[in-house]
């Protein structure tokens, strides 16, 4: 995968302005809609079981986010997800807080069983819990994790859950279990903005809507989001997280094919489990 292949996807996104159907949480709804608009996509939030199948089938991507879930919402997500599946619309899952309560973990696993999820994006703790691995989690926030750990965790999860997996943190990892990319960039101020991960998953949805190779689309989403965050922090770090949040939206609107410069690094990798022949 070349940096050129990744970079040109922003032009495609600007040209196609894909409709992104989000079923997200009450904390991040407005931030997500504004972030997607700034990026050049067209957001819609729709939750009613009476309409989600119709909305999902006309969208460029469907993003399911478990941040403030209920039994009814999960049912509606499954209806939407199955409609997306039968119309070739990619489905992204953000398992917010998986592992924090048994209901969150079970709901995420239920969606993964009943819907064909194209890309799962979570922090290390959430992905580990879905993979049956125990890790500290505090509400929706992950604890510390080393870079190598995230690479192997993402690869194990991708193989077990049979989807492309992005594990985010100080560096982001995306893999289909056999090959993948590490994306360095971004800024630690992202950790002080609630919804930074949720918006990222919807941004990945926007790239998935314009590029069917989910590894390529996901890498582009991670890299462009990191680049926007880096630039936003350059301008607002001294002021604090409130100014940074607004600047992040501004910088998402300024992205172009030259944005992935010196401050973003995209490196392909083979998980060591693949190199050592352990992966099936
Ligand atoms: N320690 C960190 N330093 C820099 N960027 C980070 C750090 N932790 C997370 N990020 C970035 O914050 C965004 C959200 O990721 P993350 O915090 O893992 O998700 P979530 O908010 O869902 O827990 C991603 O773009 C990720 O690269
Ligand atoms: C604080 C909180 N509580 C339920 S959802 C949510 C937002 C989580 O957003 P993110 O995972 O992007 O930080
Ligand atoms: Mg999250």
Notes on the protein architecture:
The protein has a nine-stranded mixed β-sheet with strand order 2-1-3-4-5-8-9-10-11, with helices on both faces. The chain has one domain: UDP-N-acetylmuramoyl-L-alanine:D-glutamate ligase, CATH 3.40.1190.20. It is 49% helix and 16% strand. The protein is globular, with a radius of gyration of 17 Å. With 280 residues, the protein is an alpha/beta fold. Bound molecules: adenosine-5'-diphosphate, 4-methyl-5-hydroxyethylthiazole phosphate and magnesium ion.
- CATH homologous superfamily title: Ribokinase
Question: Biggest sheet, strands in spatial order?
Answer: 2-1-3-4-5-8-9-10-11
Tally of structural domains: 1
- Per DSSP, the total helix count is 12
| CATH hierarchy, class | Alpha Beta
Low-pLDDT residue intervals, each spanning 5 or more residues: none
Shape: globular
For the sheet with most strands, the description reads: 9 strands, mixed
Structural class: alpha/beta
Estimated share of beta-strand residues: 15-25%
Secondary-structure element pattern, one letter each: HHEHEHEHEHEHEEHEEEHHHEH
Second CATH tier, the architecture: 3-Layer(aba) Sandwich
Question: Rg from C-alpha positions?
Answer: 17 Å
- CATH topology (fold) name: UDP-N-acetylmuramoyl-L-alanine:D-glutamate ligase
How many β-strands, per DSSP?
A: 11
> Helix content range of the residues, please?
40-55%
Cofactors, ions and other ligands in the entry: adenosine-5'-diphosphate, 4-methyl-5-hydroxyethylthiazole phosphate, magnesium ion
Cα separation of the termini: 23 Å
Mean pLDDT: 94
Family: Belongs to the Thz kinase family.
Pfam families: HK
Catalytic activity: 5-(2-hydroxyethyl)-4-methylthiazole + ATP = 4-methyl-5-(2-phosphooxyethyl)-thiazole + ADP + H(+)
Binding site for substrate: 45, 195
């Amino acid at each position: 995968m070349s940096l050129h292949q990744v970079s040109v996807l922003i032009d495609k996104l600007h040209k196609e302005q894909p409709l992104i159907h989000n079923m997200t949480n009450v904390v991040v709804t407005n931030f997500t809609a504004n972030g997607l608009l700034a990026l050049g996509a067209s957001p819609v939030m729709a939750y009613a079981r009476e309409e989600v199948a119709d909305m999902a089938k006309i969208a460029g991507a469907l993003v399911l986010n478990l941040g403030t879930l209920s039994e009814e919402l999960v049912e509606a997500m499954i209806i939407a997800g199955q409609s997306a599946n039968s119309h070739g619309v990619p489905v992204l899952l953000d398992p917010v807080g998986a592992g924090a309560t048994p209901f969150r973990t079970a709901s995420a696993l239920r969606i993964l069983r009943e819907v064909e999820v194209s890309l799962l994006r979570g922090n290390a703790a959430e992905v580990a819990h879905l993979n049956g691995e125990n890790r500290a989690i505090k509400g929706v926030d992950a604890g510390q994790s080393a870079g190598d750990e995230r690479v192997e965790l993402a690869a194990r999860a991708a193989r077990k859950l049979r989807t492309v997996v992005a594990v985010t943190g100080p560096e982001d990892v995306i893999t289909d279990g056999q090959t993948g990319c590490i994306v360095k960039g971004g800024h630690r101020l992202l950790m002080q903005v609630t919804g930074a991960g949720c918006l990222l998953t919807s941004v990945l949805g926007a790239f998935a809507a314009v590029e069917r190779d989910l590894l390529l689309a996901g890498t582009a989403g991670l890299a462009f989001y990191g680049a926007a965050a880096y630039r936003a922090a350059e301008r607002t770090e001294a002021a604090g997280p409130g100014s940074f949040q607004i600047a992040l939206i501004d910088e998402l609107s300024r992205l172009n094919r030259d944005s992935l410069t010196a401050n973003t690094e995209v490196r392909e990798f083979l998980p060591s489990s693949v190199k050592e022949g352990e992966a099936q």
